[in-house]
Amino acid sequence: MEIGDKLLRLLKHWQEHNTEHAGAYLRWAEEAEKAGFNGVAQILREVSSRTEDLNKLLKDAEKEVSGG
Questions:
Q1: So where are the chain's domains?
Q2: Contacts of 39 (CB under 8 A, 6+ apart)
Q3: What are the pLDDT digits (tens) for 45-58?
């Protein structure tokens, strides 16, 4: 398999899992907050909120590999 094909597969895979993980980050933020780890909860919420931005960057990389 050519490196471009591998990159495309990876980029799509990362986008998919990035979205899936966003929900997990929110669930763990709630758990962290309940346990008194408010700073960790805030960080996890921030990470989750940046999911769309990260997916856009991964999509841009995908376009670069695809040639347009």
A1: 3-66
A2: none
A3: 999 999 999 999 99
